[in-house]
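look at this record:
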Amino acid sequence: MTYRDLSPPTQAKKMAAIPPDNPAGDYLPADAYSDDLRVSLTEQIGAAPALLRAVVAGLSN
């Protein structure tokens, strides 16, 4: 073990350990949704379960 191993963490390491409150960014709702956008979003939501099943299909406990 070296002295470096015993040194306190740097400020950068401390900051990196604290996750951001909202990593995806602030939510900015649309003023209005067009019919095309509604259809697209609904299709994406409908497809999500099958996509998730496909992604995790090869995983094990």
Observations:
- The CA atoms of residues 37 and 43 lie 10 Å apart.
- The mean pLDDT is 81.
- Helices lie at 3-6, 11-16, 35-56.
- The longest helix spans residues 35-56.
